[in-house]
Amino acid sequence: MIEFKNVTKIYPGSDRPALSNLSLQIDNGEFVFLVGPSGAGKSTLIKLLFREQLPTKGEIFFNGKNIALLEKGALLKHRRQIGMVFQDFRLLKQKTVFENVAFALEVLGKSPAEIQEKVPLALAKVGLAGKENAFPAELSGGEQQRVGVARALIKEPTILLADEPTGNLDRGTSWQLMELFAEINESGTTVIIATHAWDVVDRMQKRVIALSEGCLVRDELRGSYHD
Description:
Layout: E1 2-9, E2 19-26, E3 31-35, H1 42-49, E4 57-62, E5 65-66, H2 72-80, E6 82-86, H3 97-106, H4 112-125, H5 141-153, E7 159-163, H6 171-186, E8 190-194, H7 198-204, E9 207-212, E10 215-220
Parallel strand pairs: 3-8, 3-9, 6-7, 7-8
Antiparallel strand pairs: 1-2, 1-4, 4-5, 9-10
């Protein structure tokens, strides 16, 4: 379970908080869309949950632990439970599809045998079987994003965070990606997606948390992009 308790985040030099007195709870296994205009605080919320940043005030709990207090070993364990998917893919251009996904396991110190076993399975799960030896430049945007999803899933995370994952994709490809996220969620993974894709949000009818100027303005169990 994820719990934000009266969380405020103020960036140095800013004239207003990126998040202001935010309180919310996300249960294990939920599928949540974070919506709102640019600058609403969606990306900040994701960065705080990953512990890339710390709150200025308030507390963030993950499965009962205050993540701001985690020491190095516990912090690494926390981050291993989270898979991240980015708008700009963040693939290593000089590495093949296989090598990009394998890298996520290499940094965890996994054995070559385990990597050889798990990477093809992860690629097959996202529909990229047979693309192991391709380089990112040889793939479509949708395929590159699927590599990013495979890289996030290879760690077997309990939470999948995606920050504008469809921002560089066309509508059809965006929907295919969201269907993949839905399948991942059905397997028990908590999925949290920050997005401007109003049509996808309206169609999927998942929980919607709406932010505006750092404040929680709407939280609906089966919501739409707009009020």
